[in-house]
Amino acid sequence: MAASSRRNPPPLPGAENQDPLSEMAGEDSDEGEDIFVGNSNPVAEAFQPDTANGEEPADLFSEAETSTAVNSSITTSKSNGVHSDNENDLFAEVSVELSMENPSTTAKSSGAEFTPSLTLSATQPESMEQLEEEKDEDSFDMEVAVTNPEKIGDGMNAYMAYKVSTRTTLPMFRNRTFSVWRRFSDFLGLYEKLSVKHSLNGCIIPPPPEKSVVGMTKVKVGKDDSSSADFVERRRAALERYLQRVVCHPSLLQDPDVREFLERDELPRAVGTHTLSGAGFLKMINRASDAVSKMTIKISDSDAWFDNKLQEVESEELQLRKLHAVVDSLVNHRKELCGNTAVFAKSMAMLGNSEDNTALSRALSQLAEVEDKMETLHQEQAASDFFILAELLADYIRLLGAVRGCFEQRMKTWQRWQEAQSTLQKKREVEAKLLWANKPDKLQQAKEEITEWEGKVTQYERDFDRISVTVRKEFLRFEKQKSKDFKSQIVKYLESLLQSQQRHVKFWEAFLPEAKAIA
Amino acid sequence: TSSVRRNGPKFTQLIVGARSVSVDLNNDASLLIDIPDALCERDKVKFTVHTKTTLSSFQKPDFSVPRQHEDFIWLHDALVETEDYAGLIIPPAPPKPDFESPREKMHKLGEGEATMTKEEYTKMKQELEAEYLAVFKKTVQVHEVFLQRLSSHPILSKDRNFQIFLEYDQDLSVRRKNAKETFGSFFKNMVKSADEVIISGIKEVDDFFEQEKTFLLDYSSKIKDSTARAEKMTRSHKNVADDYIHISATLNSLSVDDNTALKKYTNVEGRVASDEELKLTELLRYYMLDIQAAKDLLYRRARALADYENSNKALDKARLKSKDITQAEEHQQQCLQKFDKLSESGKRELTSFKGRRVVAFRKNLIEMAELEIKHAKNNMALLQGCIELLKSN
């Protein structure tokens, strides 16, 4: 994933939607000029998987699509949810399992059945079991990947573009497989839009990865070292996980913004993301409720469930932060071990050179080589530590923040209802006074206001009930997802440890005869 | 088996397994020495030195005495200062017992007790106690090896001071360094740094010694470097192991039920670190000291050569002045004899030293490789089991 700098915009998939790019809204502090502006003639590369002449698109899904006649029409989606997975399948590593409570995408799905299928070659057996456990849930074929980070432009105006590829059988999408190019601010923009629309319903909106001025600056300046490459890879992986969580969410997936993000060739530049990062936006939403929330501690006894869960979430977040700090320390120590092992290996080689006994000298040189290999193992392990464990924890710390936001949203809704009730009460008092004072005009107005507020009270109560249901549902879904996520990541981590130990054995077994040969 | 308590844990029947720094020395049944027992009191170690002998020079065939680290140093210095042994490689003195690292960590642990869970604290404490134990084992081992080197040496084993050390059933401190001797060793250490200059400055006629000189000077600096790097590496490894302890402890409180693997893995990682330490680092450290002892021998020989050359000059001068010729002749003869004796014995010692070194390295490297393989295979089995468990849930 080396960042290569390019002068031309990347080839855009298909020439269908040539929306003229809207205004280039202001300078983003760390994303730079958008080169897509004014360049609406894409290099026509066959990204369309559904060209009539069967020309194979040079895209990620080509291997999987070799023999199937891809049908571009949405409405005749056959229930061929099962795609044969080749080893080269990009999604072999993706373990996203999707579930929907009602296959209620659109009416025009015309009886197409979603075959419960999980095209995850790596985890298929387990997923099937999990599938059986889930009742009343259909799963469908929906995979996203974020790949090919490419540096567009130069200097401080440069930015990274990422290829977002989707593969799906859902009828609401125009094609089965398609790709678009997106930049970081696009992801932020998506989050912003979703938050505005859905957070009020009590949905847990997955937060996007954090902005990083330092990291991005290094990339822009063209520092072509491992730290830039690491940063880019870290961001790519984080963006991918973010998207996977979004499409995993049954309600969010329905949102047209999500569809647009995945499908539309050119997105209007996300405005104002330079002031808002994911966390920043969340804070903004919650700032208003913060002050008020602090006053309202308990809603009512019947909602003990919510209070308990909120407490759990808060304590878990603390623990995760603690754990994350330790894992961070592990990563650093392992990197140190790496360095020290390399230095030691060199000194062993020197000692071997110095040694006058031939066999021993040879053995010491071999030892130096083994230690060199150890260093590589340690380095790879450190990467595992980081990308598997540390990032998992970081993701969930952010997610728990979003969950908390959810609960607070419910609080707000409850408050609004309470306030409406008290307002109604006041209006009734006014009416009573007017009745006594006998002022028919004002009385009429008062009655109208009462009706209005009665309506509001009913409305707000209904809102509260609805959001309570949603939050509860969302939380349960979240918990399930979290436990799955953790398990799969920990398995992955253990497997990486296992692999490392296997190679460990190999290296030392190769050394042993050398040691025995000393005479 | 053995547990470490703050004030005075006693390790009876301490099985010091890693005696691989030197070859099996305790072979000669006529004089068998070991340290079966040691007491640790506030970081001051009291060794029980046990001797079994068939030699008539000793009063009893089987006896034990308590000794402190300072007693060993006294013995070593006494041997070094004995003229007769100038042509021998005197085994390096055992390093002072160093509990600094675990002590410091224990202190930090005590301070941070409030911030960690009970389990984490217990685990860390266990690890520290294991570290304490490892340091302890190590120090017993090096003291034991020192004595065994002496007992297996044809000449040194007969040394009077050595016998006193083994037998004298009262406190040795009376015989130990008085002020004068302390000063003596101080100057000795200062002069040591002139070693290199003197040794390399000598005009060598003997090919053997010429080669040895070149080899030892070079090897000495390389092995010093390797020792330091090995220590750093094993320290890093220990840090990683400690992190795993913290991780598994925190995972516990998270009620994520996949932490057993990481917990078990911690133990193994920690143990690998301390085994590597015992094997590789100790090997390097020991031979670093031993090389120094060999260099000391070269130094003494170089000094003897210098003395001889000076005595030649003095003889010439005496002949010129026709004064004290006989004296000068005698002196010159003595110097020559001394030098020849040193060279002859030195050659023997250095040759056997070489052989010893190669054998020890071989043994050590084999054992280390075998340990690495064993641990890695254990890890694999452990990890596989846990992965299967997780997947089947």
From TrEMBL, chain A:
Cellular-component GO terms for this entry: cytosol; early endosome membrane; Golgi apparatus; lamellipodium
Alphabetized InterPro entries for the sequence: PX_dom, Sorting_nexin_N, Vps5_C
Biological process terms in GO annotation: early endosome to Golgi transport; intracellular protein transport
Record's subcellular location: Cell projection, Lamellipodium; Early endosome membrane; Golgi apparatus, trans-Golgi network membrane
Recorded coiled-coil stretches: none
Polar residues bias: start-end ranges: 64-83, 116-127
Chief subcellular location: other
Keywords assigned: Acetylation, Cell projection, Endosome, Golgi apparatus, Lipid-binding, Membrane, Phosphoprotein, Protein transport, Transport
A Pfam family the protein falls into: Sorting_nexin
Domain PX: 140-269
Spans annotated as Disordered: 1-86, 101-139
An example Gene Ontology molecular-function term: phosphatidylinositol binding
Protein topology in the membrane: Peripheral membrane protein
Regions of compositional bias (Acidic residues) in chain numbering: 25-34, 129-139
UniProt similarity note: Belongs to the sorting nexin family.
Protein known as: Sorting nexin-1
Organism: Oncorhynchus tshawytscha
Taxonomic lineage: Eukaryota, Metazoa, Chordata, Craniata, Vertebrata
UniProtKB/TrEMBL annotation, chain B:
Gene Ontology annotations of biological process type: pinocytosis; protein transport; retrograde transport, endosome to Golgi
Keyword Hydrolase on entry: no
Keyword Oxidoreductase assigned: no
Biological function: Involved in several stages of intracellular trafficking.
A molecular function (GO) term: dynactin binding
Ranges of residues in domain PX: 1-172
Family of this protein: Belongs to the sorting nexin family.
Protein keywords: Protein transport, Transport
Pfam families linked to this entry: PX, Vps5
Domain of life of the native organism: Eukaryota
Protein name: Sorting nexin
InterPro entries per record: AH/BAR_dom_sf, PX_dom, PX_dom_sf, SNX5/SNX6/SNX32, Vps5_C
PANTHER family: SORTING NEXIN FAMILY MEMBER, SORTING NEXIN-5
GO CC annotations, alphabetized: cytosol; endosome
